[in-house]
Design brief:
Radius of gyration: 19 Å
Helix content: over 70%
Structural class: mainly alpha
Strand content: under 5%
Order of helices and strands: HHHHH
Distance between the termini: 53 Å
Oligomer: single chain
Shape: extended
Number of strands: 0
Largest sheet: none
């Protein structure tokens, strides 16, 4: 994939709505400047792209794992802690759903 196609693929992803709500949630104006949203979106997409590429070159060839991502962010305690918290929550939700489905079938 060449750089032009990568840039086009990244542009297709739009986080504008979510970023606008997050900015408002963190105290910004309810209708922030479009340029501000665009700048933050560019920063976020570039960060995700960079981390993904770095993770792709770790571990198994051509595959990104959660452990690869955690390894890359291990020195950023806030990101690492939040990622671990979300993974634990995800496991708890999976267990709760599984238990709920098992109870549903035993009725």
């Amino acid at each position: 994939m060449d750089n032009d196609n990568e840039a086009d693929d990244l542009k297709k992803l739009s986080l504008t709505r979510e970023i606008k709500f997050m900015m408002y949630g963190f105290g910004d104006d309810p209708c922030p400047y479009t340029q501000s949203i665009g700048l933050i979106e560019d920063i976020v997409v570039n960060y995700i792209h960079d981390i993904s590429l770095r993770a792709l070159h770790m571990g198994k060839k051509g595959k990104i794992t959660v452990e690869d991502i955690l390894h890359l962010i291990r020195h950023d305690t806030k990101k690492y802690g939040r990622a671990k918290e979300l993974l634990i929550s995800n496991d708890e939700i999976k267990k709760a759903r599984k238990g709920f489905e098992e109870d549903k079938y035993h009725l």
